[in-house]
Amino acid sequence: MGSMYAAVLFLGVQNSSSVQPVVAVERTVFYREKAAGMYSAIPYAFGQVVIEIPYVFVQSAFYGIIVYAMIGFEWTAAKFFWYFFFMYFTLLYFTFYGMMTVAITPNQNVASIVAAFFYAVWNLFSGFIIPRPRIPIWWRWYYWACPVAWTLYGLVASQFGDIQTTLTDEENVEQFLNRYFGFKHDFLGVVAAVIVALPVMFALTFALAIKAFNFQRR
């Protein structure tokens, strides 16, 4: 789980940070072309979103195959699909999150500050440092609002949530994950739906922000 946690945060933040300067520059071009009557906000935003999809897919494929083999996960079609699925949509929502932060803020510097704050909060509530059952009940709602928590839930539950290997006389791997982390293999369908919804939500927010906000200075 530690390798998954470190990889998700490192690669996710890298994706988000690397896309911010690009979007900031292209937004300046968008302002100019929009003033000339050449660009419309929604098609422009749609193009920005769609162009990232195949790039992230290739990135996830290279990363997923190499890391899956090196870590030594079980080579079954279902488990490899789940691993690739969760990594792909995770990198996608981080990328769209970086684009969204630029769209809702005046410039890249402010976007980086806003994004960094949420990276820290997501890290804290991801369920790795403090498992969900140990988070105070009045803060547990934010665990369910944390994208990284859903990613870790999906990755860990899909790889280990159905393993019946005995850890102690009273507990196997599946029971340990349920007791200590609150992960259930049967919940994967819901986790998958949320993981798909996250990049869609960030992409829509990016598009609406591009359409509604104008930070151009005259």
From TrEMBL:
Topology versus the membrane: Multi-pass membrane protein
Locations listed in the record: Membrane
GO cellular component terms, semicolon-separated: plasma membrane
Main localization, broad class: membrane
ABC-2 type transporter transmembrane domain boundaries: 1-160
Keywords recorded for this protein, A-Z: Membrane, Transmembrane, Transmembrane helix, Transport
InterPro entries: ABC2_TM
Protein's name according to its UniProt entry: ABC-2 type transporter transmembrane domain-containing protein
Species per Swiss-Prot/TrEMBL record: Anisodus tanguticus
